[in-house]
Design goal:
The protein has helices at 20-37, 65-71, 77-84; strands spanning 7-14, 41-47, 55-62, 93-97. With 104 residues, it is of the alpha+beta class. The chain has a single domain (7-97), classed as Alpha-Beta Plaits, CATH 3.30.70. The protein has a four-stranded antiparallel β-sheet with strand order 2-3-1-4, with helices on one face.
Length: 104
């Protein structure tokens, strides 16, 4: 059972050696612009896992799926998507979630 009041995106990016700083700059810009310019973007964190040198995880929370779809049409999304692509080892792993409701 899930609650569709929020839409959560977790995206994992495997970055080519030496390219993490460049990717982080793009990711932080996307996060900052999203939080500043998208009322449907509730949270946007750029994370690096403990013990991993070349993995970046984006944890994004939107009001609903429509707000996420809107995010992908924003002007700041294209430079992240296009600029980040050559820095990646492969396709990112992107998963979508809804908050689970506690059984009664």
């Amino acid at each position: 059972m899930s609650d569709t009041s929020q839409f959560v995106v977790i995206a994992e990016f495997s970055i080519k050696p030496g390219q993490v700083p460049a990717f982080l700059a793009l990711a932080h810009n996307d996060a900052n612009e999203s939080l500043a310019n998208e009322e449907g973007c509730l949270s946007f964190e750029v994370l690096t896992p403990e013990g991993s040198e070349d993995l970046v995880v984006l944890h994004e929370v939107y009001r609903d799926r429509a707000a996420f779809e809107h995010h992908m049409s924003m002007p700041h999304y294209a430079p992240f998507k296009e600029g980040g692509a050559p820095l990646l080892e492969g396709e990112p792993k992107v998963r979508f979630f809804y908050p689970a409701t506690r059984p009664s």
